[in-house]
Structure formats: structure tokens, C-alpha cells
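Worked problem 6 (solution included).
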Amino acid sequence: MELIVFIGIPASGKSSFYKERFFNSHVRVSMDLLNTRKKEAAYLDLGFRLQQRMVVDNTNVTLKDRAVYLQLAKENRYRSIGYFFQSQIADCLERNRQRPKVDRITDKGVMAKHHALELPGLAEGFDELWFVALSENGFNISPWKNEV
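Solution. The predicted structure is:
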């Protein structure tokens, strides 16, 4: 089994990538849907007990954020796979402005996540780590090289 952890600021393409690549194979775990950490923990616990493949579709911008999921993956004998989404602030702010109003967050919120962003690394406990860039041709995926 595998637990996939997305890493990227708001409007970097995480949810769109999930829909395109994992919708038919992995359960989506998202604070946008679950609203509280208590519900998220219960949902993750159920997923692990049922041996579901899961994607954590949150920003997960800090080492501390990711450590929770990586520890759970390890405890449940899941492979942990990280996808870092290129998080260029100007592009993300523009995509956020193009979202429906109900899905938009403030520019200040996007910038706060950008400032908090800590690059991931295999040393955190990931079994695999990938870099995702969004272009007019779609998503470009390449192996992580410890840089952006």
C-alpha cells in the first residue's frame, strides 16, 4: 500500500493533479473536505485499516506537517511517496484569482504558505519523491533532485 503526500502552496495544481492522476485509484484525504484534524485522523485511520491507497491533498509546506503523515505511513507499513509542486508565487496567485470565488483564498494566505515552505527531502522518510511542474501542456513530472 502507499500513502502519497502532496507538497505545495495553494493554487500550485495539487487537486487538479489528484483528479487527473489518482482519482480512480486513491482515496483523497483533504482538509478542504474534512475541515478538522479530528475528522482527518479518523479518515486516515479508516483508510489504513481498510488498506486503501491514499493521497493527502493538503499544502504540507513544513517538515512538521509532513512528519505526521510519514510516521503514520511507517507505522502502517505503507510506502510514502511525495510530490512537490512547483510553487512560483506569481503563477499561484494568478491561478488562485481564476478560481471560483468560493474556492479562492486571500493573496495573503497564499503568500504565507509560500514563506513557510520548506523543501522536502528523502531524509524525511519518503520512499520516493517527485517534482511536478505545471505548464500549458499539463503536468510535467520528474524525479526530485533536492532543488527547485
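Discussion: Residues 11 and 99 are 9 Å apart (CA to CA).
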